[in-house]
From TrEMBL:
Residues 1-32 are annotated as: Disordered. PANTHER family: DEOXYGUANOSINETRIPHOSPHATE TRIPHOSPHOHYDROLASE-LIKE PROTEIN, DEOXYNUCLEOSIDE TRIPHOSPHATE TRIPHOSPHOHYDROLASE. It comes from Hyphomonas hirschiana VP5. Residues 1-20 have a biased composition (Basic and acidic residues). Belongs to the dGTPase family. Type 2 subfamily. Signal peptide: none annotated. Residues 64-206 form the HD domain. GO terms for molecular function: dGTPase activity. GO terms for biological process: dGTP catabolic process. Keywords: Hydrolase. This is Deoxyguanosinetriphosphate triphosphohydrolase-like protein.
Length: 390
């Protein structure tokens, strides 16, 4: 058994679940949470939800599911090295994208625009809504009844939600609809495992977007060579393996870059542990600054990479065309479902027809946020293609 850091979250000291259940004879509370996430409907749907490309554009691009698995792998590796709870880190990595609607960030932007008169849409808040309300698999409660530590990490993995300038009333409605929300200590940072999962997400999508962008022909290896750190690694691989084609160069360089980012995070976190000296996960939450992080030396190269990806990938004309189509599909669907709730499938139609205004809009939003890319396109075809009779 790996040595556990004093500031790790201890499953033996879990604050429990909001609905009391008998403990498992074979799994820790966090292992049980992980299993509930994996068996959820929302998790399965991630296989056809994309981040940049639409699901039908190719089988080799990342989906939300493959991305979540990659984040989980990185999270476990880091958590093991730091002596944290690997199962909690993995659980938070697997659940961090549950609330994303179809069509990536374009889908979120459009759904937020549709919901603007009704307090908007936020994918992080939707994740909480899914695991506490929308997943219905148990006879005694709605949601998955996850532990306090998992819910706290899911809600705050990007940092505190409230502060002097951000009262609870300013949070998205999908957060505020969770009655025990304030019990999650919203003004503090999340525990160390949640911080690991959040930065593992950064490591995964930064490096794997390099891979997907090259595979899609949006940019080339040569385009990356002027970037700090990233260019050095690609150049090093080319010099070491002079006969490799650019596809194999990319695989090797991305592998090395992930290792570089992980090693930097581990070293920087070790330095922060020595400086801040936390003795428990509760002390980590109360520090007033993140315990887990990258060094200042890596922040500049990260910003340069994000700027490059933003201009050469996320704003590429092909991606812009996909975004435009995705927004029109979701806008059309929202208008029909809101004004003609009888067109929703059961049981959504029955629930929506009983409500009006914001309540009906939220039901429509929940239905649409759960769609996969392919299902949204198919729903649009069924409703707007006059030759489609079913």
């Amino acid at each position: 058994m790996e040595k556990r850091a004093p500031y790790a979250t201890r499953h033996e000291d879990s604050r429990g679940r909001f609905f009391e259940e008998a403990p498992s004879a074979t799994r820790t509370p966090f292992q049980r949470d992980r299993d509930r996430i994996i068996h959820s409907t929302a998790f399965r749907r991630l296989k056809q939800k994309t981040q940049v490309f639409v699901a039908h554009e190719g089988d080799h691009f990342r989906t939300r599911l493959t991305h979540s698995l990659e984040v989980a792998q990185i999270s476990r590796s880091i958590a093991r090295t730091l002596g944290l709870d690997e199962d909690l880190a993995e659980t938070l990595a697997l659940s961090h994208d549950l609330g994303h609607p179809p069509f990536g960030h374009a889908g979120e932007d459009q759904l937020d625009a549709c919901m603007e008169p009704y307090e908007g849409f936020d994918h992080n808040a939707q994740s909480l809504r899914i695991v506490t309300r929308l997943e219905r698999r148990y006879p005694l409660f709605n949601g998955l009844n996850l532990t306090w530590e998992t819910l706290e990490g899911l809600v705050k993995h990007n940092g505190p939600l409230t502060g002097p300038d951000t009262p609870v009333t300013a949070l998205p409605i999908a957060f505020r609809d969770f009655a025990p929300l304030e019990q999650l200590e919203l003004d503090q940072f999340a525990g160390p495992e949640a911080q690991v999962a959040a930065l593992s997400d950064d490591i995964a999508y930064n490096n794997h977007d390099i891979d997907d962008g090259i595979a899609a022909g949006l940019f080339t290896v040569d385009d990356l060579l002027e970037l700090p750190v990233v260019g050095d690694v690609f150049r090093g691989v080319r010099m070491e393996f002079r006969d490799l084609d650019d596809r194999m160069v990319t695989y090797e360089a991305v592998r090395r870059l992930i290792g570089l980012w992980i090693n930097d995070l581990v070293l920087e976190t070790g330095a922060r542990v020595k400086r801040l000296k936390p003795h428990s996960a509760a002390e980590v939450r109360a520090l007033g600054e993140p315990l887990i992080g990258f060094s200042e030396g890596l922040e500049g190269p990260q910003r340069a990479l994000r700027t490059f990806l933003y201009s050469r990938m996320y704003k590429h004309y092909r991606v812009n065309r996909m975004r435009s189509k995705a927004k029109r599909v979701l806008a059309d669907l929202f208008e029909v479902f809101l004004n003609e709730p009888q067109t929703l499938p059961p049981p959504w139609n029955g629930a929506a027809m009983k409500e009006e205004g914001a309540r009906r809009a939220r039901i429509v939003c929940d239905y649409m946020a759960g769609m996969t890319d392919t299902y949204a396109l198919e729903e649009h075809r069924r409703l707007f293609d006059t030759s489609a009779l079913t």
